[in-house]
Amino acid sequence: MTDAFPDWSTLLPAGRIRDVVRAPAGVLSESGPQLDPTDPRTVQLCADLVATMRVSPGCVGLAAPQIGVAGQAFCVDVSGHPKTRTDHGLIVLVNAEVTASSRNSKGREGCMSVPDLTGDVKRADRITVAGRLPVSGDPVELSTDAYEARALQHEIDHCAGYLFLDRVIGAHGLHHRKVYLDAPDPDSPGAGASRHPE
Description:
By secondary structure, the protein is of the alpha+beta class. It is built from 4 helices and 8 strands. It is globular.
């Protein structure tokens, strides 16, 4: 078991830019099946996720259901985000699950599949995640915290058929994104899509 991630640019094939599915599409509420991480179709799916994330402004993660595929695969990259403490760079995982977690704290989240809203969601501050690497199928485990931990939990939820809307705290925890896009301070919480896990 390792916590090191390979150079994906040399391992994954060229990815295709895929359309992002929006709620209430049925695939977003399905619990996706586990995938064979060595299957060429899974490898291509992972490459497509990375390519689509890279061209989507402010996106720090994307899961298979968000491009219309019911399955447990996602990518996350919070590099350069001001709220990032631990940064593993580009993370691409198949069949991932949270195996340990700490206390929860509240944070604002948004999602490309719910483009007009953000919400206050409680998530674990520190987590350990286990999964499989595409291509090799090798098991991997990583521990992380803060923003990267939140982004990973958000994407694992997508693979299980949950949106952040399903986790919003209380009646006043949902917000129209426009309020945050218009925030005068670009470093304020929620000031645009780049401030939220995808």
